[in-house]
Amino acid sequence: MEKEKILITGASGFIGSHLTRKFVDLGAEVFVLTKYLSQVENVRLLDIWDKVKFIEGDIRNLDSLGAIRENRFDKIFHLAAYNHVGDSFRHITENLDTNGKGTANLLESCKDYKRFVYTSSSEVYGKQDSVPFQEDFLPRPISPYAVGKYTGELYCKMKYEVTGLPITVLRPFNTFGPYQSEKAVIPELIMNCLLGKDIVTTEGKQTREFNFVSNIIEGMVMAAESEESIGKTTNLGSKEEISIKDLTMAIHELSESKSTLKIGELPYRPIEIWRMSAANQLAWERFQWKPKILFREGLKITVDWYRRYVETFRNQESGLLKLGKIKTS
């Protein structure tokens, strides 16, 4: 039986690397689009480096996507993005070029596929009058990042309406797990707790939902198999809210941290969204997905992983750390 050909953009990112590993485990022929073909730059893929095929290209540059136009893929998962909400206010052009124009460039470069899955974001909802957020709510993005992701959504919807190509749009809600950047709230809190740094937060009354990465990956794989998801937008989320204060306390406890908690010393952001959670009924109706790993279990797995991460990267006797001590004479 011929292997399924999968293309993943953003494969070296947090969610993308987990998705890449999933399809390698499933026995697919996996192609990844990367700006730089470097093991150092793509450390998240290090353990499967020899099991995937690389295409060098930048979605912001249509001319660099020639290798994609020359191939036919069964499924395309588009995760490449400028992905930091706060920083997007300082990098507006890069954000819009990547998330908006980059999505259009990719869609124009891919002509023949069984499924194109666009990974949007719960951030496109912005401030809503009620929760949980339902797919038919009018998006009200309040950051350049959210505007860029919503632009990508709109291009996908236009392309589907005009061509009838099998395009699926997913809106994952906050995701966490091993290998996530320390710029995200959960790994930032975990690292500070493990390193004994003061934990300084707002009062933490705002709520979010957090989804363990393997749940989101499973949802993406299942959505790509579902005929019911073609031409539609579907949330991926747990509908389980937790306040930032309770999240901070849970991480402090699980990490057995001696860090001093300074809850309430930071002001709220002017554009704070007070509640965010996903209506997830359509994910069940369209492709029978619901989260398997509960939040607390996923959080424990993540804290344990970052503890090993600290031992590897911060331990002065670590072979990895010693690589930085270059002898020039």
Helix and strand composition category: alpha/beta
Over all CA atoms, what is the radius of gyration? 20 Å
If helices are DSSP runs of H or I spanning 4 or more residues, what is the number of helices? 10
Looking at the structure, the CATH topology of one domain is Rossmann fold
Q: Percent of residues in helical segments?
A: 25-40%
CATH architecture annotation name of one domain: 3-Layer(aba) Sandwich
Polypeptide structure, described:
β4, α3 (92-109) and β5 form a beta-alpha-beta unit. The protein has a seven-stranded parallel β-sheet, with helices on both faces. Helices cover 35% and strands 15% of the residues. α3 (92-109) runs parallel beside α4 (144-163). The chain has helices spanning 14-25, 66-69, 92-109, 144-163, 185-194, 213-223, 244-254, 281-287, 295-313, 319-322, and strands at 5-9, 29-34, 53-56, 75-78, 115-119, 167-172, 175-176, 199-201, 207-208, 211-212, 233-236, 242-243, 261-263. It has a domain at 1-172: NAD(P)-binding Rossmann-like Domain (Rossmann fold, 3-Layer(aba) Sandwich). The termini are far apart. By secondary structure, it is an alpha/beta fold.
Write the layout of secondary structure elements.
Elements: E1 5-9, H1 14-25, E2 29-34, E3 53-56, H2 66-69, E4 75-78, H3 92-109, E5 115-119, H4 144-163, E6 167-172, E7 175-176, H5 185-194, E8 199-201, E9 207-208, E10 211-212, H6 213-223, E11 233-236, E12 242-243, H7 244-254, E13 261-263, H8 281-287, H9 295-313, H10 319-322
Parallel strand pairs: 1-2, 1-4, 2-3, 4-5, 5-6, 6-11, 7-10, 8-13
Antiparallel strand pairs: 9-12
